[in-house]
Amino acid sequence: MSSISDFIGVSARKNVEEAIAKAHENESFHALLSLTETRALERADAVDRGEITGLLAGVPFIAKDNFLTLGGTTTAASKILENFEAPLQATAIEKLEAEGAICIGKANLDAFAHGGSTENSAFGPTKNAVDQERVAGGSSGGSAVVVALQIVPFALGTDTGGSIRQPASFNGVVGVKPTYGTVSRYGVVAMASSTDTIGVLASHTKDAALVMSIMSGKDAKDMTTLPDFFAPITLDGKKKIGIIKEAMTDDVDADVRRVTNEYIEKLRSAGHEVEEVSLSLLKYALAIYYIVVPAEISSNLGRYDGIRYGRRADATRLSDLYGSSRDQGFMTENKRRIMIGSYVLSSGFFDAYYLQAQKVRTLLIDEFNELFSSFDVLIAPVAPTPAFKLGENTSDPIKMYLADVMTVPASLAGLPAISVPAGKSEQGLPIGVQLIGKRRDDALLLALAESIEGNA
Amino acid sequence: MTQISHDDVHHLAQLSSLQLTDDEVGALQIDLENIVGYIQQLDELDTTGVEPTYQVTDLENVWRDDAVDNYGIDKATLLALAPATEAVQIKVPKVL
Protein backbone atom coordinates (compact mmCIF):
# COMPACT_ATOMS: atom_id res chain seq x y z
CA MET A 1 0.00 0.00 0.00
CA SER A 2 1.19 3.51 -0.71
CA SER A 3 2.72 5.60 2.09
CA ILE A 4 3.04 9.35 2.44
CA SER A 5 6.83 8.94 2.66
CA ASP A 6 6.89 7.57 -0.93
CA PHE A 7 5.71 10.98 -2.17
CA ILE A 8 8.14 13.19 -0.26
CA GLY A 9 11.41 14.47 -1.72
CA VAL A 10 10.47 13.48 -5.28
CA SER A 11 8.96 15.54 -8.11
CA ALA A 12 5.61 16.94 -6.97
CA ARG A 13 4.52 17.32 -10.61
CA LYS A 14 5.24 13.62 -11.19
CA ASN A 15 3.29 12.72 -8.01
CA VAL A 16 0.26 14.68 -9.20
CA GLU A 17 0.45 13.48 -12.82
CA GLU A 18 0.70 9.85 -11.73
CA ALA A 19 -2.18 10.19 -9.27
CA ILE A 20 -4.37 11.76 -11.94
CA ALA A 21 -3.42 9.03 -14.43
CA LYS A 22 -4.37 6.38 -11.85
CA ALA A 23 -7.66 8.17 -11.24
CA HIS A 24 -8.42 7.93 -14.97
CA GLU A 25 -7.43 4.24 -15.11
CA ASN A 26 -9.91 3.52 -12.32
CA GLU A 27 -12.88 5.50 -13.60
CA SER A 28 -15.05 2.36 -13.63
CA PHE A 29 -15.22 2.52 -9.79
CA HIS A 30 -16.82 5.98 -9.97
CA ALA A 31 -14.98 7.03 -6.82
CA LEU A 32 -14.35 10.60 -8.00
CA LEU A 33 -16.77 13.35 -8.95
CA SER A 34 -14.18 15.82 -10.25
CA LEU A 35 -10.45 16.38 -10.67
CA THR A 36 -8.84 19.72 -9.91
CA GLU A 37 -5.94 19.15 -12.28
CA THR A 38 -5.09 22.76 -13.18
CA ARG A 39 -4.83 23.99 -9.60
CA ALA A 40 -3.07 20.78 -8.49
CA LEU A 41 -0.37 21.10 -11.16
CA GLU A 42 0.15 24.79 -10.38
CA ARG A 43 0.69 23.92 -6.75
CA ALA A 44 2.95 20.98 -7.66
CA ASP A 45 5.18 23.26 -9.73
CA ALA A 46 5.34 25.72 -6.83
CA VAL A 47 6.47 22.87 -4.56
CA ASP A 48 9.09 21.81 -7.11
CA ARG A 49 10.38 25.39 -7.31
CA GLY A 50 10.73 25.39 -3.51
CA GLU A 51 8.05 28.06 -3.03
CA ILE A 52 5.82 25.76 -0.97
CA THR A 53 7.39 23.61 1.74
CA GLY A 54 6.12 21.60 4.69
CA LEU A 55 5.54 18.18 6.17
CA LEU A 56 3.41 17.10 3.18
CA ALA A 57 5.16 19.01 0.40
CA GLY A 58 4.10 17.50 -2.92
CA VAL A 59 1.85 14.77 -1.42
CA PRO A 60 -1.40 14.37 -3.40
CA PHE A 61 -4.70 13.77 -1.62
CA ILE A 62 -8.42 13.69 -2.37
CA ALA A 63 -11.23 15.33 -0.36
CA LYS A 64 -14.78 14.11 -0.01
CA ASP A 65 -16.95 16.42 -2.11
CA ASN A 66 -18.54 18.04 0.95
CA PHE A 67 -15.31 19.95 1.74
CA LEU A 68 -15.27 23.40 0.13
CA THR A 69 -12.22 23.65 -2.13
CA LEU A 70 -11.01 26.13 -4.73
CA GLY A 71 -10.33 25.18 -8.35
CA GLY A 72 -13.52 23.23 -9.05
CA THR A 73 -17.00 22.36 -7.83
CA THR A 74 -18.22 21.28 -4.38
CA THR A 75 -21.44 19.35 -4.95
CA ALA A 76 -22.05 17.29 -1.77
CA ALA A 77 -23.08 14.75 -4.48
CA SER A 78 -26.37 16.64 -4.82
CA LYS A 79 -28.26 18.21 -7.71
CA ILE A 80 -28.87 21.43 -5.81
CA LEU A 81 -25.10 22.07 -5.59
CA GLU A 82 -24.24 20.42 -8.92
CA ASN A 83 -22.50 23.54 -10.30
CA PHE A 84 -21.53 25.20 -7.01
CA GLU A 85 -18.03 26.70 -6.96
CA ALA A 86 -17.01 27.58 -3.42
CA PRO A 87 -15.63 31.05 -2.71
CA LEU A 88 -13.46 29.75 0.14
CA GLN A 89 -11.75 26.59 1.39
CA ALA A 90 -12.42 24.48 4.47
CA THR A 91 -10.00 25.07 7.35
CA ALA A 92 -8.90 21.41 7.12
CA ILE A 93 -7.92 21.91 3.46
CA GLU A 94 -6.14 25.18 4.23
CA LYS A 95 -4.10 23.50 6.99
CA LEU A 96 -3.04 20.63 4.71
CA GLU A 97 -2.17 23.07 1.90
CA ALA A 98 -0.08 25.09 4.35
CA GLU A 99 2.05 21.95 4.78
CA GLY A 100 2.37 21.54 1.01
CA ALA A 101 -0.25 18.81 0.39
CA ILE A 102 -2.01 18.95 -2.99
CA CYS A 103 -5.74 18.26 -3.42
CA ILE A 104 -6.18 16.57 -6.82
CA GLY A 105 -9.92 15.95 -6.78
CA LYS A 106 -13.20 15.36 -5.00
CA ALA A 107 -14.59 12.01 -3.92
CA ASN A 108 -18.13 10.69 -4.31
CA LEU A 109 -20.47 10.38 -1.30
CA ASP A 110 -24.10 9.83 -0.45
CA ALA A 111 -25.76 13.19 -1.19
CA PHE A 112 -25.16 15.49 1.82
CA ALA A 113 -23.48 12.46 3.48
CA HIS A 114 -26.88 10.84 4.12
CA GLY A 115 -26.31 7.14 3.70
CA GLY A 116 -24.13 4.13 4.30
CA SER A 117 -23.36 2.91 0.79
CA THR A 118 -22.69 5.93 -1.52
CA GLU A 119 -25.75 4.74 -3.49
CA ASN A 120 -27.56 7.98 -2.57
CA SER A 121 -25.18 10.07 -4.69
CA ALA A 122 -27.06 12.12 -7.29
CA PHE A 123 -24.32 11.12 -9.73
CA GLY A 124 -24.42 7.33 -9.28
CA PRO A 125 -22.87 4.91 -6.80
CA THR A 126 -19.20 4.21 -6.12
CA LYS A 127 -18.19 0.57 -6.46
CA ASN A 128 -16.25 -1.39 -3.87
CA ALA A 129 -12.47 -1.43 -4.43
CA VAL A 130 -12.35 -5.24 -4.13
CA ASP A 131 -15.62 -6.28 -5.80
CA GLN A 132 -17.38 -3.98 -8.28
CA GLU A 133 -20.73 -5.69 -7.65
CA ARG A 134 -20.65 -4.48 -4.07
CA VAL A 135 -21.05 -1.11 -2.38
CA ALA A 136 -18.17 1.09 -1.32
CA GLY A 137 -19.91 1.77 1.98
CA GLY A 138 -20.62 5.32 2.96
CA SER A 139 -21.06 7.99 3.14
CA SER A 140 -17.31 8.55 2.51
CA GLY A 141 -17.31 5.70 -0.03
CA GLY A 142 -15.32 7.51 -2.71
CA SER A 143 -12.63 8.53 -0.20
CA ALA A 144 -12.18 4.91 0.97
CA VAL A 145 -11.98 3.56 -2.59
CA VAL A 146 -9.38 6.07 -3.83
CA VAL A 147 -7.12 5.08 -0.93
CA ALA A 148 -7.73 1.34 -1.40
CA LEU A 149 -6.92 1.68 -5.12
CA GLN A 150 -3.72 3.55 -4.16
CA ILE A 151 -4.61 6.61 -6.23
CA VAL A 152 -3.52 8.76 -3.25
CA PRO A 153 -1.95 7.86 0.12
CA PHE A 154 -4.75 9.54 2.08
CA ALA A 155 -8.19 11.08 1.59
CA LEU A 156 -10.44 13.23 3.76
CA GLY A 157 -13.85 12.14 4.93
CA THR A 158 -16.58 13.17 7.35
CA ASP A 159 -18.07 10.87 9.98
CA THR A 160 -21.41 11.71 11.61
CA GLY A 161 -22.49 8.16 12.50
CA GLY A 162 -19.90 5.91 10.85
CA SER A 163 -19.31 7.52 7.47
CA ILE A 164 -15.52 7.16 7.64
CA ARG A 165 -15.25 3.94 9.66
CA GLN A 166 -17.72 1.79 7.71
CA PRO A 167 -16.35 2.45 4.18
CA ALA A 168 -12.81 2.05 5.58
CA SER A 169 -13.84 -1.41 6.78
CA PHE A 170 -15.57 -2.30 3.49
CA ASN A 171 -12.49 -1.40 1.42
CA GLY A 172 -9.63 -2.48 3.70
CA VAL A 173 -8.14 0.88 4.72
CA VAL A 174 -7.59 2.76 8.00
CA GLY A 175 -10.36 5.22 8.93
CA VAL A 176 -10.20 7.77 11.76
CA LYS A 177 -13.20 9.46 13.36
CA PRO A 178 -11.64 11.74 15.94
CA THR A 179 -12.94 13.04 19.26
CA TYR A 180 -15.78 15.49 18.57
CA GLY A 181 -14.23 18.96 18.23
CA THR A 182 -10.74 17.83 17.14
CA VAL A 183 -10.85 19.29 13.60
CA SER A 184 -12.61 22.49 12.51
CA ARG A 185 -15.73 21.94 10.39
CA TYR A 186 -15.56 25.46 8.92
CA GLY A 187 -16.10 25.13 5.17
CA VAL A 188 -17.56 21.62 5.33
CA VAL A 189 -21.20 21.02 4.37
CA ALA A 190 -23.03 20.57 7.69
CA MET A 191 -25.16 17.49 8.33
CA ALA A 192 -25.77 16.96 12.05
CA SER A 193 -23.80 19.52 14.01
CA SER A 194 -23.75 17.69 17.35
CA THR A 195 -21.99 14.62 15.86
CA ASP A 196 -20.30 15.83 12.62
CA THR A 197 -16.55 15.18 12.64
CA ILE A 198 -13.77 15.42 10.09
CA GLY A 199 -11.22 12.68 9.73
CA VAL A 200 -8.96 10.78 7.42
CA LEU A 201 -8.76 7.54 5.47
CA ALA A 202 -5.27 6.20 4.78
CA SER A 203 -3.34 3.05 4.02
CA HIS A 204 -1.31 3.21 7.22
CA THR A 205 -2.04 4.27 10.78
CA LYS A 206 1.12 6.38 11.04
CA ASP A 207 0.09 8.37 7.95
CA ALA A 208 -3.40 8.83 9.41
CA ALA A 209 -1.81 10.10 12.65
CA LEU A 210 0.35 12.60 10.76
CA VAL A 211 -2.61 14.01 8.81
CA MET A 212 -4.74 14.25 11.98
CA SER A 213 -1.96 16.09 13.82
CA ILE A 214 -1.87 18.67 11.01
CA MET A 215 -5.66 19.17 10.76
CA SER A 216 -6.43 19.28 14.48
CA GLY A 217 -6.66 22.35 16.66
CA LYS A 218 -8.79 25.29 17.67
CA ASP A 219 -10.33 27.44 14.94
CA ALA A 220 -12.15 30.69 15.71
CA LYS A 221 -14.43 29.88 12.74
CA ASP A 222 -15.76 26.72 14.45
CA MET A 223 -16.73 27.43 18.06
CA THR A 224 -16.88 23.71 18.92
CA THR A 225 -13.18 23.07 18.28
CA LEU A 226 -11.03 21.95 21.20
CA PRO A 227 -7.58 23.33 22.01
CA ASP A 228 -5.07 21.21 20.09
CA PHE A 229 -4.36 17.99 21.95
CA PHE A 230 -3.51 15.63 19.13
CA ALA A 231 0.10 14.46 18.87
CA PRO A 232 1.15 11.05 17.54
CA ILE A 233 2.53 8.75 20.25
CA THR A 234 4.09 5.32 20.43
CA LEU A 235 2.34 2.74 22.55
CA ASP A 236 3.39 2.82 26.17
CA GLY A 237 2.80 -0.38 28.14
CA LYS A 238 -0.01 -2.92 28.11
CA LYS A 239 -3.62 -1.84 27.86
CA LYS A 240 -6.88 -3.07 29.30
CA ILE A 241 -9.34 -3.60 26.46
CA GLY A 242 -13.05 -4.41 26.59
CA ILE A 243 -14.82 -6.32 23.82
CA ILE A 244 -18.44 -5.15 23.60
CA LYS A 245 -20.47 -8.35 23.85
CA GLU A 246 -23.69 -6.86 22.43
CA ALA A 247 -21.75 -6.23 19.20
CA MET A 248 -20.76 -9.90 18.88
CA THR A 249 -24.15 -11.64 18.91
CA ASP A 250 -25.36 -14.25 16.44
CA ASP A 251 -26.99 -11.46 14.37
CA VAL A 252 -23.49 -10.40 13.32
CA ASP A 253 -21.98 -12.07 10.25
CA ALA A 254 -19.82 -15.10 11.18
CA ASP A 255 -16.81 -13.83 9.20
CA VAL A 256 -17.01 -10.47 10.98
CA ARG A 257 -17.01 -12.23 14.37
CA ARG A 258 -14.13 -14.52 13.34
CA VAL A 259 -11.97 -11.61 12.12
CA THR A 260 -12.74 -9.61 15.28
CA ASN A 261 -11.77 -12.59 17.45
CA GLU A 262 -8.54 -13.05 15.48
CA TYR A 263 -7.69 -9.39 16.12
CA ILE A 264 -8.41 -9.88 19.83
CA GLU A 265 -6.00 -12.82 19.84
CA LYS A 266 -3.30 -10.58 18.33
CA LEU A 267 -3.92 -8.02 21.08
CA ARG A 268 -3.64 -10.77 23.72
CA SER A 269 -0.44 -12.14 22.12
CA ALA A 270 1.01 -8.63 22.34
CA GLY A 271 0.38 -8.76 26.10
CA HIS A 272 -2.80 -6.68 26.34
CA GLU A 273 -5.62 -7.78 28.60
CA VAL A 274 -8.93 -8.26 26.76
CA GLU A 275 -12.18 -8.86 28.66
CA GLU A 276 -15.81 -9.09 27.62
CA VAL A 277 -17.86 -6.02 28.65
CA SER A 278 -21.49 -4.97 28.30
CA LEU A 279 -22.79 -1.83 26.60
CA SER A 280 -26.41 -2.63 27.28
CA LEU A 281 -27.78 0.48 25.52
CA LEU A 282 -26.06 -0.38 22.23
CA LYS A 283 -29.34 -1.61 20.78
CA TYR A 284 -30.99 1.76 21.42
CA ALA A 285 -28.19 3.86 19.94
CA LEU A 286 -29.56 3.64 16.41
CA ALA A 287 -33.00 4.88 17.51
CA ILE A 288 -31.40 7.82 19.34
CA TYR A 289 -29.32 8.56 16.25
CA TYR A 290 -32.26 8.48 13.84
CA ILE A 291 -34.10 11.04 15.98
CA VAL A 292 -31.28 13.45 16.86
CA VAL A 293 -29.56 13.44 13.48
CA PRO A 294 -32.63 14.02 11.27
CA ALA A 295 -33.67 16.82 13.65
CA GLU A 296 -30.35 18.53 13.09
CA ILE A 297 -30.44 17.76 9.35
CA SER A 298 -33.87 19.35 8.94
CA SER A 299 -32.42 22.52 10.40
CA ASN A 300 -29.03 22.46 8.62
CA LEU A 301 -30.56 21.78 5.20
CA GLY A 302 -33.00 24.66 5.55
CA ARG A 303 -30.39 26.91 3.92
CA TYR A 304 -30.72 25.20 0.53
CA ASP A 305 -33.57 27.21 -0.92
CA GLY A 306 -32.44 28.16 -4.41
CA ILE A 307 -32.09 31.82 -3.47
CA ARG A 308 -28.52 32.74 -2.57
CA TYR A 309 -26.60 29.87 -4.22
CA GLY A 310 -27.21 26.48 -5.76
CA ARG A 311 -29.72 25.41 -8.37
CA ARG A 312 -32.98 27.32 -8.59
CA ALA A 313 -36.11 25.73 -10.06
CA ASP A 314 -38.32 27.72 -12.44
CA ALA A 315 -41.24 29.23 -10.54
CA THR A 316 -43.30 32.36 -10.70
CA ARG A 317 -44.01 32.54 -6.97
CA LEU A 318 -41.47 32.50 -4.17
CA SER A 319 -43.15 29.71 -2.16
CA ASP A 320 -43.16 27.44 -5.23
CA LEU A 321 -39.53 28.31 -5.87
CA TYR A 322 -38.50 27.07 -2.42
CA GLY A 323 -40.53 23.89 -2.64
CA SER A 324 -39.59 22.87 -6.16
CA SER A 325 -35.91 23.84 -5.86
CA ARG A 326 -35.69 21.63 -2.78
CA ASP A 327 -37.74 18.80 -4.25
CA GLN A 328 -35.58 18.70 -7.39
CA GLY A 329 -32.31 19.36 -5.57
CA PHE A 330 -32.51 16.68 -2.85
CA MET A 331 -32.38 12.90 -3.10
CA THR A 332 -35.14 10.74 -1.57
CA GLU A 333 -33.00 9.95 1.48
CA ASN A 334 -32.40 13.67 2.09
CA LYS A 335 -36.16 14.22 2.03
CA ARG A 336 -36.82 11.29 4.36
CA ARG A 337 -34.39 12.67 6.92
CA ILE A 338 -35.60 16.26 6.64
CA MET A 339 -39.21 15.12 7.14
CA ILE A 340 -38.38 12.81 10.06
CA GLY A 341 -36.57 15.77 11.59
CA SER A 342 -39.61 18.00 11.09
CA TYR A 343 -41.78 15.24 12.63
CA VAL A 344 -39.73 14.70 15.81
CA LEU A 345 -39.33 18.44 16.38
CA SER A 346 -42.96 19.36 15.72
CA SER A 347 -45.14 20.55 18.57
CA GLY A 348 -46.78 17.70 20.43
CA PHE A 349 -44.05 15.20 19.50
CA PHE A 350 -40.94 17.05 20.70
CA ASP A 351 -40.92 15.61 24.25
CA ALA A 352 -41.78 12.09 23.16
CA TYR A 353 -39.07 11.81 20.53
CA TYR A 354 -36.35 14.46 20.58
CA LEU A 355 -36.18 15.09 24.32
CA GLN A 356 -36.46 11.38 25.14
CA ALA A 357 -33.65 10.63 22.65
CA GLN A 358 -31.36 13.24 24.21
CA LYS A 359 -32.06 11.76 27.66
CA VAL A 360 -31.26 8.22 26.50
CA ARG A 361 -28.13 9.72 24.92
CA THR A 362 -27.10 10.81 28.45
CA LEU A 363 -27.63 7.24 29.70
CA LEU A 364 -25.49 5.90 26.83
CA ILE A 365 -22.69 8.38 27.61
CA ASP A 366 -22.90 7.40 31.32
CA GLU A 367 -22.51 3.77 30.33
CA PHE A 368 -19.42 4.55 28.22
CA ASN A 369 -17.94 6.60 31.10
CA GLU A 370 -18.48 3.69 33.48
CA LEU A 371 -16.66 1.31 31.10
CA PHE A 372 -13.80 3.75 30.60
CA SER A 373 -13.30 3.99 34.35
CA SER A 374 -11.82 0.49 34.19
CA PHE A 375 -10.83 0.02 30.51
CA ASP A 376 -8.44 1.97 28.26
CA VAL A 377 -9.98 0.98 24.93
CA LEU A 378 -13.14 -0.76 23.71
CA ILE A 379 -13.27 -2.99 20.67
CA ALA A 380 -16.20 -3.96 18.44
CA PRO A 381 -16.84 -4.78 14.81
CA VAL A 382 -17.29 -1.75 12.53
CA ALA A 383 -20.37 -3.08 10.76
CA PRO A 384 -22.48 -6.23 11.15
CA THR A 385 -21.48 -7.46 7.66
CA PRO A 386 -18.79 -7.00 5.02
CA ALA A 387 -19.70 -4.88 1.96
CA PHE A 388 -23.18 -5.78 0.70
CA LYS A 389 -24.31 -5.98 -2.92
CA LEU A 390 -25.26 -2.82 -4.83
CA GLY A 391 -29.04 -2.42 -4.62
CA GLU A 392 -29.40 -4.97 -1.80
CA ASN A 393 -30.61 -2.48 0.85
CA THR A 394 -31.85 0.47 -1.20
CA SER A 395 -35.55 -0.38 -0.98
CA ASP A 396 -35.60 -0.61 2.81
CA PRO A 397 -34.32 2.46 4.71
CA ILE A 398 -34.33 0.67 8.10
CA LYS A 399 -32.17 -2.16 6.74
CA MET A 400 -29.73 0.43 5.43
CA TYR A 401 -29.72 2.24 8.79
CA LEU A 402 -28.87 -1.02 10.59
CA ALA A 403 -25.44 -0.96 8.89
CA ASP A 404 -24.65 1.94 11.27
CA VAL A 405 -25.64 0.15 14.48
CA MET A 406 -22.07 -0.33 15.77
CA THR A 407 -20.66 3.02 14.73
CA VAL A 408 -23.33 5.42 16.02
CA PRO A 409 -22.67 4.92 19.77
CA ALA A 410 -19.20 6.55 19.64
CA SER A 411 -20.64 9.38 17.52
CA LEU A 412 -23.43 10.15 19.99
CA ALA A 413 -20.91 10.21 22.84
CA GLY A 414 -18.32 12.28 20.93
CA LEU A 415 -15.67 9.57 21.40
CA PRO A 416 -12.75 8.87 19.07
CA ALA A 417 -13.10 5.63 17.11
CA ILE A 418 -11.01 4.15 14.35
CA SER A 419 -11.50 1.36 11.85
CA VAL A 420 -8.45 -0.75 11.08
CA PRO A 421 -8.14 -3.54 8.49
CA ALA A 422 -8.22 -6.86 10.35
CA GLY A 423 -8.87 -9.61 7.82
CA LYS A 424 -11.09 -10.90 5.04
CA SER A 425 -14.35 -12.79 4.67
CA GLU A 426 -14.44 -16.27 3.09
CA GLN A 427 -15.21 -14.47 -0.19
CA GLY A 428 -12.17 -12.23 0.16
CA LEU A 429 -14.00 -9.05 1.23
CA PRO A 430 -12.12 -6.75 3.62
CA ILE A 431 -13.27 -6.56 7.24
CA GLY A 432 -12.14 -3.95 9.76
CA VAL A 433 -12.35 -3.78 13.52
CA GLN A 434 -13.30 -0.72 15.52
CA LEU A 435 -11.27 0.64 18.43
CA ILE A 436 -13.09 3.18 20.60
CA GLY A 437 -11.31 5.39 23.13
CA LYS A 438 -11.86 8.00 25.79
CA ARG A 439 -12.27 11.59 24.65
CA ARG A 440 -8.89 12.92 23.46
CA ASP A 441 -7.36 9.40 23.35
CA ASP A 442 -7.27 9.45 19.54
CA ALA A 443 -3.50 9.04 19.36
CA LEU A 444 -3.60 6.04 21.71
CA LEU A 445 -6.02 4.22 19.40
CA LEU A 446 -3.73 4.82 16.41
CA ALA A 447 -0.64 3.77 18.36
CA LEU A 448 -2.34 0.57 19.52
CA ALA A 449 -3.43 -0.24 15.96
CA GLU A 450 0.03 0.52 14.64
CA SER A 451 1.63 -1.87 17.14
CA ILE A 452 -0.65 -4.65 15.85
CA GLU A 453 -0.25 -3.58 12.18
CA GLY A 454 3.51 -3.98 12.70
CA ASN A 455 3.03 -7.55 13.96
CA ALA A 456 0.56 -8.56 11.23
CA MET B 1 -47.87 1.82 16.25
CA THR B 2 -48.21 5.39 15.01
CA GLN B 3 -50.03 5.74 11.70
CA ILE B 4 -48.72 8.31 9.25
CA SER B 5 -51.41 9.41 6.78
CA HIS B 6 -50.99 11.06 3.39
CA ASP B 7 -52.20 14.26 5.02
CA ASP B 8 -49.43 13.96 7.61
CA VAL B 9 -46.89 13.59 4.80
CA HIS B 10 -48.26 16.70 3.08
CA HIS B 11 -48.12 18.60 6.37
CA LEU B 12 -44.50 17.53 7.04
CA ALA B 13 -43.57 18.43 3.46
CA GLN B 14 -45.03 21.87 4.00
CA LEU B 15 -43.10 22.30 7.27
CA SER B 16 -39.97 21.21 5.39
CA SER B 17 -40.54 23.43 2.30
CA LEU B 18 -40.67 20.39 0.01
CA GLN B 19 -43.07 20.25 -2.91
CA LEU B 20 -43.44 16.48 -3.38
CA THR B 21 -44.87 14.61 -6.35
CA ASP B 22 -47.78 12.21 -5.70
CA ASP B 23 -45.49 9.19 -6.17
CA GLU B 24 -43.12 10.57 -3.57
CA VAL B 25 -45.94 11.11 -1.08
CA GLY B 26 -46.99 7.46 -1.33
CA ALA B 27 -43.46 6.11 -0.91
CA LEU B 28 -42.57 8.49 1.92
CA GLN B 29 -45.76 7.65 3.80
CA ILE B 30 -44.62 4.01 4.06
CA ASP B 31 -40.98 4.88 4.86
CA LEU B 32 -41.86 7.46 7.51
CA GLU B 33 -44.30 5.10 9.22
CA ASN B 34 -41.62 2.39 9.39
CA ILE B 35 -38.96 4.78 10.67
CA VAL B 36 -41.26 6.27 13.32
CA GLY B 37 -42.17 2.71 14.34
CA TYR B 38 -38.49 1.92 14.77
CA ILE B 39 -37.52 5.00 16.78
CA GLN B 40 -40.47 4.52 19.13
CA GLN B 41 -38.55 1.75 20.89
CA LEU B 42 -37.03 4.44 23.13
CA ASP B 43 -40.40 4.52 24.94
CA GLU B 44 -39.27 1.33 26.71
CA LEU B 45 -36.69 3.23 28.74
CA ASP B 46 -37.37 5.11 31.97
CA THR B 47 -35.61 8.47 31.81
CA THR B 48 -37.19 10.10 34.84
CA GLY B 49 -34.76 12.63 36.31
CA VAL B 50 -32.22 12.22 33.48
CA GLU B 51 -30.81 15.43 31.99
CA PRO B 52 -30.79 15.57 28.17
CA THR B 53 -27.46 15.81 26.33
CA TYR B 54 -27.35 18.58 23.76
CA GLN B 55 -23.62 18.72 23.08
CA VAL B 56 -20.51 16.69 23.82
CA THR B 57 -17.66 19.20 23.67
CA ASP B 58 -17.16 19.88 27.42
CA LEU B 59 -16.87 23.52 26.27
CA GLU B 60 -18.99 26.26 27.80
CA ASN B 61 -19.54 29.88 26.81
CA VAL B 62 -17.13 30.19 23.90
CA TRP B 63 -16.90 33.95 23.34
CA ARG B 64 -15.46 36.03 20.57
CA ASP B 65 -14.99 39.76 20.16
CA ASP B 66 -18.04 41.53 18.80
CA ALA B 67 -16.18 42.64 15.68
CA VAL B 68 -17.13 42.40 12.02
CA ASP B 69 -15.15 39.79 10.10
CA ASN B 70 -15.89 39.17 6.44
CA TYR B 71 -13.90 35.91 6.53
CA GLY B 72 -11.92 37.09 3.54
CA ILE B 73 -14.89 37.14 1.15
CA ASP B 74 -16.32 40.26 -0.48
CA LYS B 75 -19.89 41.10 -1.39
CA ALA B 76 -19.33 40.76 -5.14
CA THR B 77 -18.04 37.18 -4.76
CA LEU B 78 -21.09 36.15 -2.74
CA LEU B 79 -23.55 37.87 -5.06
CA ALA B 80 -21.98 36.07 -8.01
CA LEU B 81 -23.14 32.77 -6.45
CA ALA B 82 -26.82 33.73 -6.61
CA PRO B 83 -28.87 32.35 -9.51
CA ALA B 84 -30.35 35.80 -10.28
CA THR B 85 -29.24 39.29 -9.28
CA GLU B 86 -30.05 42.88 -10.16
CA ALA B 87 -27.85 45.81 -9.24
CA VAL B 88 -26.31 44.63 -5.92
CA GLN B 89 -29.31 42.56 -4.83
CA ILE B 90 -30.50 38.97 -5.15
CA LYS B 91 -33.58 38.76 -7.35
CA VAL B 92 -36.55 36.52 -6.44
CA PRO B 93 -40.03 35.98 -7.88
CA LYS B 94 -43.12 37.65 -6.43
CA VAL B 95 -43.63 36.95 -2.74
CA LEU B 96 -47.44 37.24 -2.78
Oligomer: heterodimer
Average pLDDT number of chain A: 97
CATH architecture of chain A: Alpha-Beta Complex
List segments of chain A where confidence is low: pLDDT < 50 over at least 5 consecutive residues: none
CATH fold annotation of chain A: Amidase signature (AS) enzymes
Rounded Rg of chain B? 22 Å
Helices of chain A, by number, come to 14
Query: What share of residues are in beta strands of chain B?
Result: under 5%
Largest sheet of chain B: 2 strands, antiparallel
Separate helix tally of chain B: 3
Largest interface: A-B, 71 and 52 residues
Q: What's the number of domains of chain A?
A: 1
Radius of gyration of chain A: 21 Å
Per CATH, the superfamily of chain A is Amidase signature (AS) domain
- Report helical residue fraction of chain A: 25-40%
How many β-strands of chain B, per DSSP?
Answer: 2
Rough outline of chain A: globular
Question: Would you mind describing this structure in some detail?
Answer:
The complex is a heterodimer of chains A (about 450) and B (about 100). Chain A has 14 helices and eleven strands. Chain A is α/β, with parallel strands linked by helices and about 450 residues long. Chain A has a single domain (about 1-455), classed as Amidase signature (AS) enzymes (Alpha-Beta Complex), CATH 3.90.1300.10. Chain A has an eleven-stranded mixed beta sheet with strand order 1-3-2-4-6-5-10-11-9-7-8, sandwiched between helices. Chain A starts with 11 loop residues before the first helix and ends with a helix. Chain B is flat, with a radius of gyration of 22 Å. The model of chain B has no long low-confidence stretch (mean pLDDT about 95). In chain B, helix 1 (about 5-15) packs across helix 2. Chain B is mainly alpha-helical. Chain B has three helices and two strands; from the N terminus they run H-H-H-E-E. In chain B, strand 1 and strand 2 form a beta hairpin. In chain B, strands 1-2 form a two-stranded antiparallel sheet. Chain B has a domain at about 5-45: Histone, subunit A. Classes of the chains: A alpha/beta (about 450), B mainly alpha (about 100). Chains A and B meet through helix 8, helix 9, helix 10, helix 11 and helix 12 of A and helix 1 and helix 2 of B.
